[in-house]
Amino acid sequence: MRVSEHIKEVQSVIEGSQTSRDDVIATSWTRCIDDYHLDPVVMQEAYIVPHTQLKEHRERLDKLIRTAKYGLDALYHQVADHGYVLMLTDAEGVTVDYQGDASLTWELKKAGLYLGAEWSEARAGTCGVGSCIYTGEALTVHQSDHFDATHSPLSCTAAPIYDVDGSLAAVLDISALHSPEPKASQALTLQLVTSCTRRIEMAALMNTFRKEWVIRLSQSPAFLDVDPECAMAVDAEGRIIGMTHSTQRLLSRIKGNDWRQPRALLGCSLSDFFNLDINELPALSRALPTEERLLATIHGDLWFAHAIAPQPSSIRRRKKVVSGSLASLYGDDAKMADLAIKATTLSMSDLPLLLNGETGTGKEFLAKAIHESSSRKSGPFIAINCAAIPESLIESELFGYADGAFTGARSKGKRGLIEQANNGTLFLDEIGDMPLSLQARLLRVLAERELLPVGATKAIPVSFRVLAATHKSLPELVKNGSFREDLFYRINGATLTIPSLRERSDILWLAEILITKLVDRTVCVSVSAGHILERYDWPGNIRELENMLQFALAFCEGNELLPEHLPEQLLNAKRLTFREAESAGGTLEVLEACGWNISKAAKVMGVDRSTVHRRIKKAGIKRRYDTD
To answer: What are the record keywords, sorted (predicted)?
Structure first.
């Protein structure tokens, strides 16, 4: 269809003319005009968000991206040969994960089928992702269904992914630059994408509620254990605490509710929907044949059911009390888990917190996670690096200034960073470097909950939660007189100490997380490179790890990060003692870590190549795949 014809059709539909378009398309076109004030005559190319914003969007969806990875890879392999691109967007329509033909990168990026592209209806008009977000339904927006004629060559099929609490978490979209003209040609694509989203939701539910009862339902006994339609999690009292979207719709039908109100379902008893008591769940385990595991709704409908018992764990209570934002900061490290438990408990109060930790341990990330877990999460998070602002500017930056406060000031004055944090969280990083003169002014703000901008005569009331961070010992600074004791007690309602990276057991997990943020392709850490990362001291902590991974990825052209890609300082670092290195076990460990590269192993142990060969011969060490 020509552009002029398309624009004319959109205008006629908006004016009430009959159309052969699906109702969902015609309704979306009307929204584009009435709600978003878009003009079909004005054609706009796809919008790619800036890299810094993309990182923020990816971080918020990091856990889901990792959960969905296997399913997305498998789906892309099914559709790649047919010219499709796979995109995962967040609930705002920003593409946070993407798989497409690398040879078409320029063309795909121009069309918006690329990482960072925003596909909200307000931005792009009627489109697969945006219309899916609005309706909450799986759909296809095919070629001239798009409101903006710029996108009319595309065919986009999208399905929503819902979180375990019933809220929209993401959208999975399969799009093609070129496709057959009939819209019916995308029917199979719609089935594929909805099937994949159902499995992703199932995996997310199983991962989230490993320590609770999970009930999976199917209308077919043959598919109950391999691909069930519904699943829900219940607590020890039989209350529903999580569900997949298909379950959300099922329970809403049983109760006669609108499925778009998941909060009306969470917390309800299992017996409100099914003729079943919590104590009867063991009878639905695999101890019985599938055909005998029948569960009836209160209306008499029958489902085949599989009840999965909670996994026993000595840390069950700890897993239950960690908030989602804080849980995303660590892998299986016990120290970080303990920190997350304390932070979760403290996040719900307005108690000021002091975050201690070496430089680069991620104090600001912890502060943001606490904010996102708090009752102030809908308010702003304002971070101030007290060591980075020049002393001559720090007062005006923090407190702002009134009209005409000093020469060169803005004519209308300026809001300070503290005022900008009103109703949110104020994060004071490196507070140990704040000048004494400003410590007194900050103390007054914290004590009286009002601030006085530079040159102003009237104080402004403020309400915020204070989080402060430092790598220094504030008690020592108090002793030597460089930090006010009264301010110390104002910001130190409780102290959270972040372990250094060398103390953590989840370095490889953290490395994989950082790699997904640094590159747009799948790269795994080899076993030998992993050994090197785990044995290094990391004086610069997470910041140093990120820098070294950036270096390594620049030299890694394949999908596996190897020891030769790592910086020399990692390979030269000596974490082994001389006796450890001399032992057969120590020598073998170094050789494995260095991929049996004798030169690199010699560097790690601080010896020459001949010494390594001599130790190999003396200990009779062989590679695992060597034969006699």
So the answer is: ATP-binding, DNA-binding, Nucleotide-binding, Transcription, Transcription regulation
Cα–Cα distance between 527 and 539 in angstroms, integer? Answer: 22
3-state secondary structure of 234: strand
For the whole model, what pTM was predicted? 0.53
Burial class (CB in 10 A: 0-12, 13-18, 19+), 190: middle
pLDDT score, position 406: 54
Residues 6+ positions from 244 with CB-CB distance below 8 Å: 162, 164, 198, 201, 202, 205, 230, 231, 232
Residue with tokens 């945006």: 130
Encode 584-613: b = buried (16+ Cβ within 10 Å), e = exposed: eebbbbbbbbbbbbeebbbbbbebeeeebe
Paired tokens of 8:
């004319």
Does the CA dihedral 475-477-479-485 come out positive or negative?
A: negative
Residues 147, 56: contact at Cβ < 8 Å? no
CA–CA gap between residue 426 and residue 442 (Å, rounded)? 12
Rg of the chain in Å (alpha carbons): 29
Q: Which residues are bridge partners to 410 per DSSP?
A: none
3-state secondary structure 166-227: CCEEEEEEEEECCCCCCHHHHHHHHHHHHHHHHHHHHHHHHHHCCCCEEEEEECCCCCCCCC
Tokens 């960690």 belong to 322
pLDDT tens digits for range 201-234: 999 999 899 889 999 999 998 888 888 999 999 9
Is the distance from CB of 21 to CB of 147 less than 8 angstroms? no
Residue 262's CB: how many other CB atoms inside 10 A?
21
Contact, 361 vs 507, CB < 8 A?
Answer: no
Please state, rounded to an integer, the average pLDDT across all residues of the chain: 87
Q: Is residue 212 within 8 Å of 235, Cβ to Cβ?
A: yes
> What's the CA gap between 161 and 24, in Å, rounded?
19
291: how many CB neighbours lie within 10 A of its CB?
10
Q: Where are the beta strands (DSSP E) in 351-440?
A: 353-356, 381-385, 400-401, 414-415, 424-429
Chain-centre distance of CA 350, in angstroms?
25
- 233 bridge partner residues: 214, 242
Cβ-Cβ contacts under 8 Å for 112 (sequence gap 6 or more): 45, 46, 47, 48, 119, 124, 151
Q: Kind of pairing, strands 240-243 and 294-296? A: unpaired
Nearest to 327 by CA among 347, 312, 309: 347
Name the 3-class secondary structure at 90: strand
Distances (CA, A) of 28 to 19, 358, 419, 517: 13, 52, 40, 34
Cβ contact 197:168 at 8 Å: no
CA 310-314-318 angle, to 5 degrees, is 85
Distance CA 374, CA 368 (A): 10
Backbone angles phi, psi at 240, to 5 degrees: -75, 125
- pLDDT band per the 50, 70, 90 thresholds, residue 319: very low
Residue 59: count other Cβ atoms within 10 Å of its Cβ.
Answer: 17
Query: Using CB atoms within 10 A of its CB, is residue 501 exposed (0-12), middle (13-18) or buried (19+)?
Result: buried
Q: Which residue has the tokens 């994060």?
A: 427
End-to-end Cα, the chain, rounded Å: 71
